Automatic annotation (TrEMBL):
Covered residues, full protein: 33 to 262 of 308
Domain ABC transporter: 4-230
Gene Ontology MF, one: ATP binding
Annotated membrane topology: Peripheral membrane protein
Name of this chain's protein: ABC transporter ATP-binding protein
This protein's GO CC annotations: ATP-binding cassette (ABC) transporter complex
Organism: Anaerosporobacter mobilis DSM 15930
């Protein structure tokens, strides 16, 4: 089943920088996709297009067979389906404490207070961070902030999660925790797309590897095929 269909996607920033050119990609439900490419190749721009932060300059994005609509309701719906974990959790965390932080998304969906509380508790439990519940977000360590940023997204129960270099700033212990968590999400049927610079990891983890360079898709293939061609 097709989860996301990107057709002839182009994105140009206001200053004229062309960040994506004629990107065509079909991503299936439950697929594990690694996106690779040098800095500045367009990975983050692609994620922000997928999440509706940027509207394509040209081309289209379909999610669950429906074109994304760029109005309030359309974007709200899109962000319930596709969540993004930013590279730097400081850009994502803005509530006073962890409980409020994780509650924010589900509250915004208009869920009952008790339902929100249950969701937050269950996400804290699945990430093994119940003890952080009452902590001020400001005083968390880098690894803990990352875990809370992931918890934020999980509380929305998305079908797709985009991870922008999720382990980039983490020590090996927290990197392993995040990698294990990603595996659990995949096992639960969530479609995961991660930007990574780690080719060994991508080869071992991904169903397909997509290589982007200068805003264009150079390669989209299974790790085996990608490996044969290097
Ligand atoms: P990556 O995530 O692969 O490092 P980006 O998507 O951040 O790549 O960047 C793609 C291109 O778009 C680069 O040339 C970058 O300099 C440019 N770019 C990124 N953000 C902006 C912006 N806000 N305004 C103008 N150009 C940008
Ligand atoms: P830091 O202070 O650098 O974040 P700690 O080692 O003090 O590092 O905390 C590690 C984090 O990882 C804590 O939030 C803890 O709850 C969490 N953690 C510990 N064990 C597990 C585990 N088995 N699975 C998931 N998370 C864990």
């Amino acid at each position: 089943d097709t989860m996301i269909e990107i057709k002839n996607l182009n994105y140009q920033y206001e200053d004229g920088t062309v960040a994506l050119q004629n990107v065509n990609l079909t991503i299936n439900k439950g697929e594990k996709i690694a996106i690779m490419g040098p800095n500045g190749s367009g990975k983050s721009t692609l994620f922000l297009c997928l999440n509706g932060v940027y509207k394509p300059t040209n081309g289209s994005i379909q999610v669950n067979g429906e074109p994304v609509t760029y109005n309030r309701n359309g974007l709200k719906k899109l962000r319930q389906i596709i969540g993004i974990v930013f590279q730097n959790p400081d850009n994502q965390l803005f509530s006073a404490d962890v409980f409020q932080e994780i509650s924010f998304g589900p509250m915004n969906l208009g869920l009952e207070k008790e339902v929100v509380r249950e969701r937050v508790e269950s996400v804290l439990e699945s990430l093994h961070i119940q003890h952080l519940k009452k902590r001020p977000t400001h005083f968390l360590s880098g690894g803990q902030k990352k875990q809370v940023a992931i918890a934020d997204i999980l509380a929305m129960k998305p079908e797709v999660i985009l991870f922008d270099e999720p382990t980039a700033a983490l020590d090996s212990y927290h990197s392993q925790l995040v990698n294990d968590l990603v595996d659990e999400l995949c096992e639960a049927g969530i479609t995961v797309i991660q930007a990574t610079h780690d080719s060994d990891y991508a080869m071992a983890w991904a169903d397909r590897i997509i290589v982007i360079q200068d805003g264009k898709v150079l390669v989209k293939d299974t790790p085996q095929k990608v490996f044969e061609n290097v």
